[in-house]
Amino acid sequence: MIALRLLPPRLVFLAVFLGCAALLSFGLYLQHAKGIEPCPLCILQRYAFASAGLIALLGALLNPRGLLLKTWGIVLAASALAGGSVSVRQIWLQHNPPSVSTCGPDLSYMVSRFPLSDVLPKLFRGEGDCAKIDWTFLGFSIAEWSVLCFSVLVLIGLWQALRNPLAAHARR
Fold it and tell me: Cα separations (Å) of 153 from 44, 103, 161, 165?
């Protein structure tokens, strides 16, 4: 436990960035190698992983200290919380599929043709294949694995925000 406390924040942020990059790479592998097309909620989760990864990369490069470290940790946790909420919505849709399922247009088409105020409700309604489970590992769907990963990112962000600044910078 003491060794974990002495882990430099820069190294933690770098590990988060690498983890997010690995998750995004696996999503692209499932899409392009296995032919599993992402639904609109999956795309939003990818954006959340990308934003958490970018926040972590900047945290690793800038090596924030003191109040900035706390702020950086909270921003990371907030980004992961947003992605986790999308995952929870998709899990709910998977366990309670709508009675009528219609395949709507993909995310890029909707964003290019409609105002964002029209696109967001359509995304969260989960029309099309957001309720469909295309892949599982150890009995869990992609959305369930995503909520687990986002939960870990929230905990890491909060840990970064709440850690003792003296212990956090004992080693650089």
Answer: 16, 32, 12, 20
